[in-house]
Amino acid sequence: MGVKDQIDLQRLPEHIAVIMDGNGRWAKERGKLRIFGHHNGVISVRDVIEGACDIGLKYITLYTFSTENWNRPKLEVIAIMELMVTTINKEIKNFMEKNVRLRAIGDLSMLPDKAYRELQKAIETTSGNTGLVMTLALSYSSKREILRAVKLVAEQVKNGDLSIDDINEETFEKNLYTSGMPDPELLIRTGGEHRISNYLLWQIAYAELYFTTKLWPDFRKEDLFEAILDYQKRERRFGLTSEQVN
Ligand code: FPP
């Protein structure tokens, strides 16, 4: 029985977040420039999205570019932005066929004009799709997202639209970029590092973490299925005892 067939489709995580790490090392191992790794990373994205659609996953959020990544060598930044634009343009037909809705979270105002325009166009074109919601975290920093939410809440209190007593998890979350999305139950990080790198810090409070040494360009849908299987073997206790959960 293949890995996919072992997955219990009734107990899928609703939302999977992914830190796609290891593109640079993958390229270096082959004596190539880092951008070669990013190009091959796109092949992994395509395959993983196909796998996610096959099993009927509802949300996937991909860490595509962090605010810290702006400090990478200029040529690499330009190349990643161009790659994003060409990939989105190329994939849009596929998104429509597969009923995938594209979204983006992060400080999109920092994107180059062309990348921003093309991204918005694709978001709009796919906005009516009702299948997988594929969110790109772009120019994203979780700490900045939380601070932004704090400021928005403060503004609402100042304007008399919200009372301090009504600030709770629910009202706060409405001010995060991810408002309206369920929190990820599973976070996958490729590339062998065991860290979160400023990603969805609020939203992963109770996520199961899955680390693999596979570099992102080697990651395929079967690896996604392996991660889901591993997730399904875990007992999620949310602070309760094992007896209480069972
Ligand atoms: C991390 O690997 C990867 C990135 C910062 C870029 C990820 C972008 C892509 C895969 C392109 C995706 C495009 C779309 C449209 C989704 P790294 O460069 O940090 O690798 P390293 O840790 O080996 O240096």
Relevant terms:
246 residues; alpha/beta; six-stranded parallel β-sheet; 9 helices; 45% helix; globular; binds farnesyl diphosphate
How is this structure best summarized?
The chain is an alpha/beta fold and 246 residues long. The protein is built from nine helices and six strands, in the order H-E-H-H-E-H-E-H-E-H-H-E-E-H-H.
Describe the structure.
The chain is an alpha/beta fold. It has one domain: Decaprenyl diphosphate synthase-like (Undecaprenyl pyrophosphate synthetase). Helices cover 45% and strands 14% of the residues. The protein contains nine helices and six strands, in the order H-E-H-H-E-H-E-H-E-H-H-E-E-H-H. The protein has helices at 3-6, 23-29, 34-55, 74-98, 113-125, 142-158, 169-173, 221-233, 242-245, and strands at 15-19, 59-66, 101-105, 133-140, 186-189, 208-211. A six-stranded parallel sheet has the order 3-4-2-1-5-6, sandwiched between helices. Helix 3 packs across helix 8. The site of farnesyl diphosphate has 22 residues, from helix 2, helix 3, strand 2 and helix 4. Farnesyl diphosphate (FPP) is lined by residues 20-25, 34, 38, 41-42, 45, 62, 64-65, 69, 80, 83-84, 87-88, 136, 191.
